[in-house]
Amino acid sequence: MFKNIMVPVDLAHLEVLEPALSIVADLAKQYDAHITYVSVTANTPTSVARTPQEYEQKLDAFAQSRHQVHGQPVSIKVYSSTDPVANVDKQLVDAVEETGADLVMMATHLPRHLDIIMPSHGGKVATHTDASVFLIRVP
After folding, report:
1. Per residue in 71-109, is it b (16+ CB within 10 Å) or e — as a string?
2. How many other CB atoms are there within 10 angstroms of residue 17's CB atom?
3. Helix (H) / strand (E) containing 98
4. Which residues make beta-bridge pairs with 104?
5. DSSP state at residue 139
6. What is the span of the domain harbouring residue 95?
């Protein structure tokens, strides 16, 4: 049913994503799907990488390590932005089309009152693409 699963990843918060990544691996195996890890990073140095190119290398290393865990084919897509927080929703929507993803699996937080003012990234992706979106609540 699903051939290409897109997984947004923030390398600064991998410890929080681990439960969701296990679910992604299980579903990818079940459908023999390709996994595309997508990230949005700043054009300026961050706590993860000094340049977007270094960030891309780290995301690729992460993807290859996940491949060793689940065995499914992987690829990456990195977007650099002057303001990742403001641009992440648009970049994720663009990534769905550019990667040909038919399923987006993303970790998410529990609902908060602030969500009325600033909707979730998953909600934006779901309303602006044709892909199925699977939000995985992380503790």
Report:
1. ebebebbbbbbeebeeebbebbbbbbeebebbbbbbbbe
2. 19
3. helix 84-99
4. 6, 133
5. -
6. 4-137
Q: Which two tokens stand for residue 38?
A: 């997508």
Output the CA torsion sign for 138, 41, 134, 75: negative
What is the residue type of 137?
R
* The two three-digit tokens of residue 105, written as one number: 């699996």
- pTM of the full structure: 0.88
Q: Domain with 13 in it: what CATH number?
A: 3.40.50.620
Place of tokens 């929507």: 93
Q: What phi, psi does 45 have (nearest 5°)?
A: -60, 140
Per-residue pLDDT of the chain (139 residues; tens, 9 = 90+): 899 999 999 998 888 888 889 999 999 999 999 999 999 999 999 999 999 999 999 999 999 999 999 999 999 999 999 998 888 889 999 999 999 999 999 887 545 544 444 446 666 666 777 899 888 887 6
Question: In total, how many domains does the chain have?
Answer: 1
